[in-house]
Design goal:
Elements (H helix, E strand, L loop, with lengths): L1 H13 L7 E8 L5 E9 L5 H14 L6 E8 L4 E7 L6 E5 L2 H8 L6 H4 L3 E3 H16 L7 E8 L6 E7 L6 E7 L6 H8 L9 H5 L1 H6 L4 E3 L4 E5 L2 E10 L4 E10 L5 E12 L7 E10 L2 E10 L7 E12 L3 E15 L2 E14 L14 E16 L8 E16 L10 E17 L4 E13 L9 E3 L13 E3 L1 E14 L2 E14 L5 E3 L2 E10 L3 E11 L11 E9 L1
Parallel strand pairs: 1-4, 5-8, 9-12
Antiparallel strand pairs: 1-2, 3-4, 5-6, 7-8, 10-12, 11-12, 13-14, 13-31, 14-15, 15-16, 16-17, 17-18, 18-19, 19-20, 20-21, 21-22, 22-23, 23-26, 24-25, 26-27, 27-28, 27-29, 29-30, 30-31
Helix pairs in contact: 2-5
C-alpha cells in the first residue's frame, strides 16, 4: 500500500495531459499564514511542473528560508487545476543541521557533501539549500524518484537554531519497460543504449529529463510529444512518442563536356547518404566528384554505432583521388567510436595514406616535384553535436577534431634514376567547429572555424591540402587553393524564414601557407549572401560570393554562384 501511495502522489508531477490546458498555481504561505500567489500559468504538459516547483523552492531557501517546503498539493481533474502550497518557513541566516547516524552512510555517497562537516558547523541558507538539492538529485538519479529531503524537530533557539535532517528515500524503482509509440523505424536496443536508459537499470530523473534534447540530435527521429512515465509496483514504464523523419539524402550535378581529343567526358558532383536503413542509427556515405578534366574523386564512408548494445561503434572510410595523369591518391581509415553521452563521441583510428606519382607528373609544372609516399597514421579524435535542431540550428555547438601521427616512407628518384627510400615522422591536426548564437526568435549568428595542419620535414606537392569552394572558402572555385597549413574563420548572420529555411549573409577569412615547393602565404577572403530553402522533399540552397586573394581588388566579374539541392527520403 505504501508504494501505491507514493505512485499516486508522484502521478501529479509526471502525468502528461493532452488537449485541454491545465491551470497551474503556486501559492506561498508565510509563518503568519499570509498567502501570496507567486505564479499562475496554463500548460498542456504538466511533466515540467515538478522541476519548476523545485527551482522555486531552491530560490526561496537561498533567501534565508532554509526550511521552505511543499505544504500541500491540490489537484482538480474536472476543472484542470493544479495548486501547490509552498510553506516559506521562518527566517534564518544560519542553521545547525543534526544528522542521524543511520543516514551518514547514504550522505557519504553524495558527491560534494562532507557528512562530518555537515553536522559540525553552522550553515548559511544558501549552503543548506544546496545540501538539500544535492541529496534530492542524487536519490532521484539513483533509483529513488519518490525521495523527500526535509527538516523536523526544529529548535528555534535564538542563539543556535538547529533542525533534524530527514531523508525519506521511498521505494527503489527500476526501469521496467520502454514503449516505442508511433511505429518508429528504430530498434529498441539502439534507443536504450543511446539514451542510457536500459530496462532493469535504476531509475534516473536526470536521464528522463534529457530524453527530448537527445532525440532532437537524431536527424531520422522526431519527438511527436513529450515522453511519459507510468509507475507501478513493477517499476517505471517509459513511453516514447517518436516519428520517423526523412534523413537519407541524394544531391549533386552531372554534366557532359568534350575534351581536347574531341571525346566526351562526364563531370559532376554526386553525393548519397543513407541513414538508419537497418534501424540501428547507422550511416553510409558515397560521394563522386569530377569537377576538372581528367580529375576524379571517390569517397565511401560507413559508421555503425552501439555495436552489440554497447557504447562502442565502428567506422571506416575509403578515399581515392586521381589528378589527371600526375598522381593517384588513396586513403583508407578504420576506427572505433565510444559514446560518452550528451551527443559526444571519442574515437581512435588507423589510417593509411598513399600517393603514387603517374607518368604525366613531369609534364605538369604544378606537380613536377611530386613523390611517391606511403604513410601509416594512428590518431584520436572527438565528435560533439549539441544543437537544438540539426537541419537548421539556432543555438548550440558542433565540433569535430582529430590529431594523428604517422611514419612516412618516400620513394624519390635521384639523377641516376635510382629509387631511394626516406623515412620521416609526420603529424596532422584537423578541427571543424561551429557555434550558433540566437539573437531573438528569428536571428542567429554562426561562428565557425575550419583548420588543417600537416607537419613534416619535407612536404611534397602531391601532399598539399586542397581547399576553396562551398564548404571551405566561398568566393573561389572548388579546390583551387593549395596549402600545407590553413585556417578559415567564418562569421555568418541568418534570418530564419521557417523551421527549415533561412536567408544568410557571410564573411569567410582564411590564412594559409604552402611550404611544398616555393614558400608562400596568403589571406584570401570571401563574402556574400544566399538562401537555404527547405521543403518536405529536400533543401535547395544558393549563394553568391565574391573573393579576393594576394591583395588583389575584388572583381564583380569573378563572382561565384554556389548552389545545391539535397533530396531527402
Amino acid at each position: 500500500m505504501k508504494i501505491i501511495a507514493y505512485i499516486a502522489f508522484l502521478s501529479i508531477h509526471f502525468t502528461v495531459i493532452s488537449q485541454k490546458k491545465w491551470n497551474v498555481t503556486l501559492i506561498v504561505t508565510d509563518t503568519d499564514s499570509t498567502r501570496e500567489v507567486i505564479k499562475s500559468y496554463a500548460t498542456k504538459d504538466t511533466s515540467g511542473v515538478r522541476d519548476y516547483v523545485a527551482k522555486k523552492l531552491f530560490s526561496i531557501r537561498k533567501k534565508n528560508h532554509p526550511l521552505a517546503g511543499i505544504e500541500q498539493v491540490e489537484r482538480d481533474t474536472i476543472n484542470k487545476k493544479l495548486i501547490y502550497y509552498l510553506y516559506k518557513g521562518p527566517l534564518f541566516e544560519k542553521l545547525t543541521i543534526r544528522v542521524l547516524s543511520e543516514q551518514k552512510q547514504l550522505i557519504k555517497r553524495v558527491p560534494g557533501i562532507n557528512e562530518r562537516l555537515l553536522a559540525q558547523v553552522e550553515l548559511s541558507s544558501v549552503e543548506i539549500a544546496e545540501v538539500q538539492l544535492k541529496l534530492l538529485q542524487y536519490l532521484e538519479n539513483n533509483g529513488y524518484p519518490f525521495a523527500k529531503v526535509y527538516f523536523t524537530d526544529i529548535q528555534l533557539d535564538t542563539h543556535s537554531p538547529s533542525a533534524q535532517l530527514k531523508i525519506e528515500t521511498g521505494p527503489e524503482v527500476k526501469w521496467h519497460t520502454i514503449h516505442l509509440k508511433g511505429d518508429p523505424k528504430i530498434r529498441k536496443s539502439f534507443i536504450q543504449t543511446y539514451l542510457g536508459i536500459r530496462e532493469g537499470d535504476l531509475y534516473s530523473e536526470k536521464l528522463f529529463r534529457q530524453i527530448t534534447s537527445k532525440i532532437d540530435q537524431l536527424v531520422y527521429l522526431n519527438n511527436e510529444q513529450t515522453p511519459q512515465i507510468a509507475f507501478s509496483s513493477e517499476g517505471a514504464e517509459l513511453y516514447l512518442y517518436l516519428k520517423n523523419s526523412p534523413s537519407s539524402s541524394a544531391n549533386g550535378i552531372l554534366g557532359i563536356q568534350p575534351n581536347e581529343a574531341g571525346k566526351v567526358t562526364f563531370t559532376g558532383d554526386i553525393q548519397l547518404r543513407l541513414m538508419n536503413l537497418l534501424k540501428s542509427g547507422e550511416q553510409m556515405d558515397l560521394s563522386w566528384k569530377s569537377l576538372q578534366a581528367g580529375t576524379q574523386q571517390l569517397d565511401i564512408g560507413i559508421n555503425y554505432p552501439f555495436l552489440f548494445k554497447s557504447n562502442f561503434g565502428v567506422e571506416g572510410n575509403f578515399h581515392l583521388y586521381k589528378r589527371d595523369s600526375s598522381f593517384l591518391e588513396i586513403q583508407a581509415q578504420a576506427g572505433i567510436r565510444y559514446y560518452i553521452g550528451k551527443g559526444s563521441f571519442i574515437r581512435g583510428f588507423y589510417r593509411y595514406e598513399g600517393s603514387n606519382v603517374l607518368s604525366g607528373a613531369d609534364n605538369n609544372p604544378n606537380f613536377s616535384t611530386s613523390e611517391t609516399v606511403r604513410t601509416n597514421f594512428y590518431g584520436i579524435g572527438i565528435i560533439r553535436k549539441k544543437v537544438d535542431y540539426l537541419p537548421n540550428p539556432t543555438r548550440g555547438l558542433n565540433l569535430e577534431s582529430n590529431i594523428s601521427f604517422g611514419m612516412r616512407k618516400a620513394f624519390p628518384i635521384d639523377s641516376t634514376d635510382i629509387v631511394r627510400q626516406t623515412n620521416a615522422t609526420t603529424y596532422k591536426f584537423d578541427l571543424a567547429i561551429e557555434y550558433f548564437i540566437p539573437l531573438g526568435k528569428r536571428h542567429t549568428i554562426r561562428v565557425a572555424n575550419l583548420s588543417r595542419f600537416y607537419i613534416a620535414d619535407t612536404i611534397y606537392v602531391n601532399e598539399q591540402i586542397r581547399f576553396g569552394g562551398l564548404n571551405t572558402q566561398r568566393g573561389f572555385d572548388e579546390e583551387s587553393l593549395f596549402a600545407t597549413t590553413f585556417s578559415r574563420f567564418t562569421l555568418e548572420y541568418r534570418f530564419l524564414l521557417d523551421k527549415n529555411s533561412h536567408l544568410f549573409a557571410f564573411f569567410d577569412q582564411s590564412i594559409y601557407e604552402n611550404t611544398s615547393r616555393n614558400y608562400y602565404k596568403d589571406t584570401p577572403s570571401g563574402f556574400g549572401a544566399g538562401l537555404a530553402f527547405g521543403t518536405k522533399v529536400g533543401t535547395f540552397s544558393i549563394s553568391y560570393a565574391l573573393g579576393s586573394q594576394f591583395g588583389n581588388p575584388i572583381q564583380l566579374r569573378d563572382g561565384k554562384i554556389h548552389f545545391g539541392y539535397v533530396a531527402f527520403f
